[in-house]
Amino acid sequence: MSSCRIACTGNWSSGLNVLFSGVKARRCSGSAASLRRSQTTAAKHASGPDTGHKPRLRAIDLARKVQQERTKQQPAEPPVSGQQRRVTELKRFSQQLQNVHPNVLAKHLHRGVLYQDKDVVVINKPYGVPVRDDSGVTSISSVLPILSKMMDGMKIRSNSQLLPCLGLEKETTGALLLVRREEAAEHILNLNRNNQVQRKYWVVTVGVPVPSEGVIDIPIIEREVTGSQPHYKMALSPLFKMNDAGDGLTKVRGHRQAQSAVTRYRVLDSSSGCSLVELQPFTGAKHQMRVHMAFALACPILGDHKYSHWSKLAPQKLPERVLGNLGLEQSKIRYLPLHLHSRQLTLPGTSQADVSVSCPLPKYFTQTLSRLHLSLPDEKDQK
User: Fold this and answer.
1) What is the pTM of this model?
2) Phi, psi of 358 (to 5 degrees)
3) pLDDT of res. 100
4) Residue 179 is inside which H or E element, if any?
């Protein structure tokens, strides 16, 4: 008996080990079976049709579904023509240049320097930026001190300066003359009064001038336009009128407030009911070229919303043919810019040859020429 008890006692620990091993094995096998059942249940839920329950929708899937429904509900935007896009971009660009930091405008003008010497500088004036200070917007005059330092290498001690001379209107683009000294400005103004400074402009007109070249010599005067929107415009003040018989002219007394205005014009090309015309003013009356083209030749400049009508303030009215070629609707014409470009500036030389500077056309101008099928003249025809 004692020997038997000793034998049982000796195998007691090994029996416990066997017992615990069996329990662990059953627990592991039970966990594995439970895991397999969970995976099988998840697979059944994912499959959907086998269980009859709808799968759960994640938040990201729900957001995508809502976005797709909104996209379907939004009406398709009408197609925008290339010209409409260009006009909108041009308007935005001109406003940005007027409201940017002066350094930004000065850098833009610095990149557009066409000519410089010890007396004068010629820059490429952008569209929509006034030369003089105008209603608080950034003007070319306000950034000339910065431009002068840029052209002088940003020297700390620099006495150089730039002054505007023979300015351009806000909506006019092209060659703008600046001078470095007041004495140079006086000299050039005297040359201009004696018609020794030659300035040529390119314009796109609505209509074809007849005859194709000539000189318009009709004084201009500022008049009030009455009506629902009273305003002032420059108008013709002719020195001649038709006689009572209608077969001749009779000279009339000139108005004392009228300004002398003389403009030479030459048609460079015509197509699609429009023309590319070269203008050379011999006088400097306000809005001279615009008034002569609109009222003397009945061919207003494209984008001239001020002088396309006399009795009202409204966007320019264009023929359907022109609208079609431009790819525009009449309702969008108010964004069409004035197509008046200072193409060439020639100054008489003193100790050297004449200074002649040509300014490239802005992008919107060349795109309009292309749409209207107007061709640029050869270099030999520009002289």
Assistant:
1) 0.74
2) -110, 140
3) 78
4) strand 173-179
